[in-house]
Amino acid sequence: MKSNRTMTREKAMTVLYQIFLYNKNKIKYNISEVTDEILEYTDLEERKKIDISFLNSLVSGVIDNMEDIDAYIGKYMTNWKIERLGLTDQAIIRMAVYELIYTDTPDLVCINEAIELSKKYSDEKVEKMINGVLDKIYHEREDNE
User: Fold this and answer.
1) Residue 1: its pLDDT value, please?
2) CA dist., res. 37 & res. 102, Å (int)
3) Is the CB of residue 14 less than 8 Å from the CB of residue 38?
């Protein structure tokens, strides 16, 4: 059974995907309305297990810090560009980097959760790239402490 945080991260990924799609198509949106819409189509039992506060903090954290997050990602991507990734892949890596840099979630939890999402939603090449970028950020942070 998935943990509440794992389920919440998956919903946050879905909300971010939708927001990135709106941005790509220059459609105006309200973050809370997008979140409500995604949750509306979520099974009631699953919805009860989602940590709404954590969901909102992940989504708004990624959106509010996207420029810095993308700079971090770009620093460690080799032969990849964030904008060339699929929107789901962008959501996964940005959310993981946000958690690594801006939250007190243990680094290995951030990385493992992102890897699990990428195994489920990305192809193997993207999964390896996400793992590599997160590993480099993790080691840079370890070296600086």
Assistant:
1) 54
2) 26
3) yes
Question: If DSSP codes are grouped into helix, strand and coil, which group holds residue 3?
Answer: coil
pLDDT of residue 141: 83
Token readout for 75 is 């620093």
Instruction: Give yes or no for a contact between 89 and 130, defined as CB atoms under 8 angstroms apart.
Output: yes
pLDDT in tens, 97-126: 999 999 999 999 999 999 999 999 999 999
Residue 126 belongs to domain with CATH number: 1.10.940.10
Q: H/E/C letters for each residue in 17-66?
A: HHHHHHHHCCCCCCHHHHHHHHHHCCCHHHHHHCCHHHHHHHHHHHHHCH
Mean pLDDT by 10 residues, the chain (145 residues): 86 98 95 94 91 96 97 91 94 98 95 97 95 94 79
Q: How far apart are CA 41 and CA 97, in angstroms?
A: 27
Instruction: Return the amino acid letter for 1.
Output: M
Determine the structural domain holding residue 17 and report its residue range. 4-144
φ/ψ region of 56 (left if φ > 0, alpha if ψ in -120 to 50, else beta) reads: alpha
| Count of domains for the chain | 1
pTM score, two decimals? 0.94
